[in-house]
Amino acid sequence: MAETKESLGSQRSDVAWVVIVFSGVMAALHIWKLPSAIPVLQNELGISLLMSGVLLGVVQVAGMVSGLAMSLVAELISQRHTMILGLLLLSVGSAAGSLSQDATLLLITRIIEGAGVIMASVMGPGLVRAHAPLHRMNVAVGWWAAFMGIATFLGVLGTAIALQYITWQTWWLFLAAATLIPVVLILKVIAPDHPAGSAGAKAALTRIIATASSGRVWLSGLIFGCYTVQWMAIVGFLPSIYREDGLSPVMGGLFAAVVGGLNGIGAICTGNLLQKGFSAKKLLLAAFLIMATTSVMTFAIDYPPQLMLLQVLSVGSFSLCGAMVPATMTRIAVDLAPEGGSAPAAMGLMQQIFNIGNFTGPMLVAWLVVVTGSWSSSWWVSAFFGALGIGATLVLMRKGSPLHQIQHAR
Predict the structure, then answer these.
(1) b/e code 347-374 from CB counts within 10 Å (16+ = b)
(2) What is the mean pLDDT of the chain?
(3) How far is Cα 31 from Cα 34, in angstroms, rounded to an integer?
(4) Does the pTM exceed 0.85?
C-alpha cells in the first residue's frame, strides 16, 4: 500500500489533472451538443417536444443503472483504463448517431454515449485526487466540478454556430473524432495504475457493497440529484425557449451557452472558497435557496422584450450559484465512503442517483409545459427540489456527522 501511495505521489502534476478535466469536458460535450440541435432534429426527424425531453435525459440512463457497476469495472481494470473506454464509447456512439434517420437510432446511440459519459464522470474525481498536487487539491477538484459547465458553454454555442454551416450529422462525426484527442493525452500523461484484476474481484465487490450500505452516500446522491433535476432541465431547454421568444439560433445559443458557462465559473470559484475554509453546509444551503428564487424570477414573470436581459441575468444567477452544489459535493464525495468502502463506488452511487435527476428533469419540465401550455410553470420544479435539497443538506450536515467533522478538519 505504501508503494502504491508513493507511486501516486510521484505522478502528481498540474498537467495530469488538467488532462483529466479536459477529458471530462470532451465527454460532456456529447450531452450538450443536443440542445441547440433540437429545433433542427424536430424539423428533419419529426421529433416532438416530449421526445426532445427524452433525448436530453436518456443520455443519463447508463448513469442511472450502472454507476456502481462502473466503480467495479474501475476496481478491476483501473480508473485510467475505464475513462479511456468511456471516451471510446462516446466516439463510437456519436459516429453511429450521425447515421440516424429517425428518433429510434438516435435514442439508442444517446444511451451508448451515456455509458461513456458515466465512465468518464465517475473516474474523474478519483483521478484528479490521485494526480493533483496536494496544495492545489481543492482548486483542481473545483475545476473538475466545472467540466459540465464548460462543456455546456462550448457544446451549446459550438453547435448553434456549427449548424449554420454544416449538417448535424457532420457535427456528430466531428465530435466523434475530437473525442479521441483526450485518449491520446491520457495514454501519454497519466501513468498506468494498478487494478485489482479478476483476483481482487471479491475484495472489490465487498468494498462496493460496504459503500452501497452507507446511508450518507445515498443522501449525498439525493442532494446532487436535487440540483441536477432542475439544472439539466432548465439549461437544456434554453435554446428552445429563446427560439420561441424570437431570438435567432446563434443568439439563443449564445445566451444559453453563457448561462451554462457561468456554471463552470461558479464551480471554479466554489473550489477556491472551499480552499479558503468556507462552510460546505452554508454553500449548499445558499445554492438551493438562490436556485429556487432565481427560477421564480426567470419563469414566473412575463418579461417584455425590452427587459429580456433581466430574465437572462436571473437564469445566469441560477446557473452560477447552483454550481456550488456539484463543486462542494464532488469535493467531499470520496470522504463519504465508509471504512472498508470504496471512493470510486461512493462517486459511482452518487452519479447513479443524480443521473436520475438528469434523466427525469427534462421530461418533467416538458410534461409541465405540455400540460400548462407555458414555460412559466418550470419554476415549480426548482421550488420543490430546492426545498428537498435544503432538507437533505440539513440532515447530512447535522452536528456530529462524519461530514461535519471532515469540514472542520480542513
Answers:
(1) bbbbbbbbbbbbbbbbbbbbebbeeeee
(2) 83
(3) 6
(4) no
